[in-house]
Amino acid sequence: MAHGQRLPSTLTGHSVDPCYAFLRSRSAGGGMEIHKPKPVHGWREWLTEVGIVVLGVLIALGAEQAVETLHWRHRVEQTEAQLHFELLRDARSSLTWLSSSPCQEARLAGLEAALMAARTSHRVEKVLPYKPNLWLWTNDAWLNARSLQVADHLQPEAVRRYTVAYFFPRELQSDIVEINQLAAELSPLREGLDQVTPAEADGFLRTIGLIRELKSRMDLGNTRLLQAAAAMGVRPMEEDLRQARSDALQSYGACIGNPAEIMAKFGVGTS
Known about the structure:
Layout: H1 18-27, H2 43-121, E1 123-124, H3 140-147, H4 156-165, H5 167-184, E2 193-194, H6 198-231, H7 238-252, H8 259-265
Antiparallel strand pairs: 1-2
Helix pairs in contact: 2-3, 2-6, 2-7, 4-6, 5-6
């Protein structure tokens, strides 16, 4: 529009400017209306509105708490399944160790007898070596449960029982490494040994004494692990007993003990 040119008017004298027409239509009832807040009339109305707000907040908080409770319940169920699986695997290792314990003792006795004879003959005859397998005990699931704070959502009695049960895998894993290190010191005796002095024979005998002490501790630890796992409802099944027997038989032969009899001896039944 050229400068200075007037806009056309309606019959009423108002401008037909589009912007003006838009504003008139809004004021005449078209478009969005903005309502001013109504004043509160009396305490009863005010308390009603506050109550509605408070109720809404409580419902939101309750829903959030319900979701969180369901979340942790699911996490606890998953974690307990992992804990039971790991304890069952540890119990199987304990059964294999206890099944092979008579064979281990027999080999230590054979080495001891050969060394006692070598004190006078100065010769160690060839005997069966002593080298226990590196069986595996783990406590990773329990460490994860504690570090991820899932253990905080278990019942106090369950936490106590898991703490007791998982004390033994940690100790046994350390002991099996140590006993193999001691067994390595006896490796020169595998093929027999000539020109052995009494002092050397005594040195080997001291090592056997240390191995026996550690083995006794492991026998007790494996027994306690089976009992603690059973207290948590974790008991080896028949398949686990067969596997433990097979593993021990493969390593040591017919001198092994019967896993089922071991379970019965220590009052731990199968599941």
